[in-house]
Amino acid sequence: MDDSGELKDEGRSAIEVLDRAKAVYLGLAIGDALGATTEFMTPAEIKAKYKVHKKIIGGGWLYLKPGQVTDDTEMSLALGKALLATACWDIKGIADNLLAWMRNKPVDIGATCRRGIRDYMLKGQLEVPYNEWDAGNGAVMRMAPVALFTLGEAGLLEEYAIAQAHLTHNHILSDAACLAVGKLVHEAILGADRFRLHEITRELVAEYRSFRFNNYQGNASAYVVDTMQTVFHYLFSTASFEECLVGVVNQGGDADTTGAIAGMIAGAFYGLDAIPARWLKVLKKEVRAEVEDQALRLTKLSPWAKQNH
Questions:
Q1: CB 262, CB 188: distance < 8 Å
Q2: Alpha helix locations (H) across 192-284?
Q3: Were 23 and a residue from 123, 221, 272, 283 both cysteine, which residue would form a disulfide, CB within 3.0 to 4.6 Å?
Q4: CA–CA distance, 265 with 254 (Å, rounded to integer)
Q5: What is the pTM for the complete model shown?
Q6: Residue closest to 152 by CA, chosen among 295, 17, 291
Q7: Secondary structure of residue 13 in the 3-state scheme
């Protein structure tokens, strides 16, 4: 605690940490809403149609309304709601919420996520078996609530990230990406600089060479390696939240998910004030309210909050 009575953590006050937490979850929703427009398009198609896509206008292959989000944000909110209902880790509660969400006929759901949730519905299965074809990005996009709930405790992050991932995706590369994103969010919220974030990505690449992104090839598919290479490339080659997200979603491919994941990390790193007001204004009001509410409440349940109060 400093002289003013303000709680401090690695140079950040409690208010600053909570603002960063909000920026993580808002970044997810903004990246999702922005990227949904260019999902499945090529960079050339995007350029021909928009020059540079930088407005939240909806449309895309899902014909969304401006500010509407997809499964990236909706699954994250379902997961977060389960944690807030019990204030503890509850994998069955998470599975129940994801099943309720799927039954509600969402605007979009990935094939691997659908299969995992159906397996839970039909067999009560809380962990899908290892599958060589499960190296998609569908578990990584749900990491925002997990990262906030475990803030300040790397061991819990690892345990819970893998547990939630294995509801739908059981693959070593998916697991590694979930952990890396969780670590990046944790450290950026608590004050890590760009060099420390780069170090986390180097640790990932040292263990799994396929994630190398220093010679970025421009692939932005739902394959988790393509997704993370895209996110890392733009995270480290841009200088603002907006520039990072615009770069990512203009690569097309699985743009709602690359946008969502980039938004989480960039939100944690650049903070709330860096998110363009025009994007926040267009984001669906109910989504914005729920995202901000969950961000604060999940962070207040975290080990960080317990250590600092």
A1: no
A2: 194-207, 224-237, 241-249, 255-270, 277-282
A3: 272
A4: 17
A5: 0.96
A6: 17
A7: strand
pLDDT per residue, tens digit, the chain (309 aa), is: 333 333 334 468 999 999 999 999 999 999 999 999 999 999 999 999 999 999 999 999 999 999 999 999 999 999 999 999 999 999 999 999 999 999 999 999 999 999 999 999 999 999 999 999 899 999 999 999 999 999 999 999 999 999 999 999 999 999 999 999 999 999 999 999 999 999 999 999 999 999 999 999 999 999 999 999 999 999 999 999 999 999 999 999 999 999 999 999 999 999 999 999 999 999 999 999 999 999 999 999 999 999 987
**Under 8 Å between Cβ of 145 and 185:** no
DSSP 136: B
Give the H/E segment covering residue 9: strand 8-9
Residue 152, φ and ψ in degrees, nearest 5? 95, 0
In the block, tokens 């960079």 appear at: 43
Chain centroid to Cα 14, Å, comes to 22
Fold of 8-308: ADP-ribosylglycohydrolase fold (1.10.4080)
* Contacts of the segment 110-119: beta carbons below 8 A, 24+ positions apart: 110/71, 110/136, 110/138, 110/222, 112/136, 112/138, 112/168, 112/169, 113/71, 113/75, 113/138, 113/168, 113/169, 115/168, 116/167, 116/168, 116/169, 117/167, 117/168
Nearest Cα residue to 201 out of 219, 172, 176: 176
Cα end-to-end span (Å), the chain: 10
Euclidean distance between CA atoms 261 and 33, whole angstroms: 12
Q: What residues does 281 pair with on adjacent strands?
A: none
